[in-house]
Amino acid sequence: MSTLPTVLIIGCGSIGERHLRNFQATGRCNVIACDNRPAILAAMAEKHGAATSADWTASLADPAVTAVLIATPATSHVAIATKVLQAGKHCLIEKPLSLSLDGMAELQAAAAASGKVCRVAYVQHSRPEVRAAKAFLDTGTFGPIRAATIISGQNFPTFRPAYREIYYNNHAQGGGAIQDAITHMFNLTEWITGPTASVLCDAGHQVLDGVEVEDTVSVTTRNRNGAILTYTLNQFQAPNEATMQFNCPGGSVKVEFHNTRWGRMALGETEWTWESFPPLGRDGPFTIQANDFLDAMAGKPDLMATLDEGIQAVKFNLACFEAWRSGARVSIGSG
Ligand SMILES: NC(=O)c1ccc[n+]([C@@H]2O[C@H](COP(=O)([O-])OP(=O)(O)OC[C@H]3O[C@@H](n4cnc5c(N)ncnc54)[C@H](O)[C@@H]3O)[C@@H](O)[C@H]2O)c1
Questions:
Q1: Which protein residue has the closest C-alpha to ligand 1 atom 40?
Q2: Total domains in the fold of the chain
Q3: Model pTM score
Q4: What are 240-279's pLDDT values in tens digits?
Q5: Contact 13 CB / ligand 1 (< 6 Å)
Q6: Does a structural domain hold residue 288?
């Protein structure tokens, strides 16, 4: 009998299958694929040789299942995660954690009572160039971050050809650029710079065919520590690129996802000093994240997004919607 932990993956659609493949690739766990569509389960068994389950509630009663990854659409994350933690399993939840704050107190209580690992799968935490830049910024060599620009975009139809037919086409299912895409950069930037105090937001549907949700977002924020940050993202541009630049009194730090590198320039210098990492491919950060989650289950420190950070990211998304609709600056409560 295998002594490896067993990870139940609930929801084996686009991202669930990616997680399944990457958890399998660690060689450190067994996986069970769970989906309520029989054709998906058949595909997971055939393509990946995975054990399958059609009913996640039944699988939670299986003592061999020690951890659960929730990759269903966002509307169901909180209810499933609460049950998972109440069943005493470790829990990794896809982003966004939710579309509202409903059920959060119960989820937090279940997480605290379980003593299990509960993380939100903001996968950009797993980029080596981001980790290296954050480690440098954390040394304080350049002083505190006082301003930052976070610029990202890609041609979403190239990466998700079915975007018109999936949850993306509907805000109420987790769709649109705010909840589905720029939330990654909000969470990642807060991880590096600290929590956001207030938000100004404009957004719109600019290009993407066959949907009405916003494909373009522009956000300016104030951090609780006073830093002024600017974010922009669109989902139709040709280049698949993301650049973050953090500006401190003593110098600047830049991260380029598309070049898997980060650089620093001290005040008085005119050239960036770069540190580059090998290209990761699309699965690379997911493999790192899978290993991190298994490490966390084994009691080791990890760099994944915490439940509280996931809740803060939900508040950030909600503040963006309110700021966009009202045209006013919206505060994010710290409670
Ligand atoms: N981290 C990333 O880069 C990334 C990328 C894409 C999606 N996501 C997130 O992952 C989540 C899922 O997105 P997706 O694109 O994979 O969606 P998807 O629609 O492709 O897959 C969701 C799957 O969940 C299954 N499902 C729904 N309810 C279920 C239930 N009660 N029991 C079992 N299975 C159930 C569906 O049948 C479907 O196969 C969303 O929250 C999304 O925002 C994250």
A1: 73
A2: 2
A3: 0.97
A4: 999 999 999 999 999 999 999 999 999 999 999 999 999 9
A5: yes
A6: no
Beta bridge partners of 65: 6
Kindly state whether residue 98 falls inside one of the protein's structural domains.
yes
Which of 41, 72, 154 most suits a substitution to test ligand 1, by most atoms within 8 Å of the C-beta?
72
Query: pLDDT band for position 335 (50/70/90)?
Result: low
Two tokens, residue 194: 């600290």
What's the mean per-residue pLDDT of the chain?
97
Tell me if 111 sits within 8 A of 103, measured CB to CB: no
| Atom of ligand 1 minimally distant from the CA of 16 | 16
9 lines ligand 1 (CB under 6 A): no
Q: Is the CB of 71 under 6 A from ligand 1?
A: yes
Instruction: Name the band, by pLDDT with cuts 50, 70 and 90, for residue 334.
Output: confident
